[in-house]
Amino acid sequence: MKYKGIIFDLDGVICSTDEYHYRAWKQLADRIGVPFDRTVNNRLRGVSRMESLEIILEKFPVAYSEAEKQAMAAEKNELYRTLLAQMSPRDLSDEVRETLERLRAAGLRLAIGSSSKNTPLILGSIGLDNWFDAVSDGNNITRSKPDPEVFLKAAGMLQLSPADCLVVEDALSGAQAGHAGGFAVACVGDAADHGAGDYNLKTFRELLQVTEIG
Ligand code: BG6
Ligand code: MG
Q1: Which of 116, 122, 187 has the most ligand 1 atoms within 8 A of CB, as the residue to mutate?
Q2: Number of folded domains in the chain?
């Protein structure tokens, strides 16, 4: 087998919460009058909540205080969590579930490496709590992607070296983080469209070919 472990980003890779991030930021941006579209949203993929807000406000000619920014980030998170409340195990696609099961059955160690502090809530909603061998997320890191911290911690939890692990990402920042940590990177979605990975996949199922399982 080509790798011993796989570290998956969550939002936009395991499930489509990236759309809910977009809608929640859009609602906040519209309320305060900041221009925000999907091109800006793509820059937020993989980036922490507070850094995302800084990107949204970067050209806005109003200097908000730290307390005001904290309040805006909290408002966005409330909107986001309201959207997350609709999620259920049906939001885990058959393709992703079957692929994960086949990767595990082949003996690979599987982890999550996500910048999101909502990771435990999301994994619970889609029926994957306690499913992965390790979960490294926004609650146990101090630097978000493109820093490799979240992936290095996940590899450490799996007791594997980066050279033995594949990172799966939809974000350019996440692909950079994987490479910075010494991992091979498979991209889906936006990052694959940019050719940012060592493998740029059209479907999640193609991971079976990348890992030489099927
Ligand atoms: C990443 C998302 O997974 O998590 C980013 O791609 C998001 O868009 C980041 O900003 C932080 O998420 P949360 O849930 O902690 O606000
Ligand atoms: Mg993502």
Answers
A1: 116
A2: 2
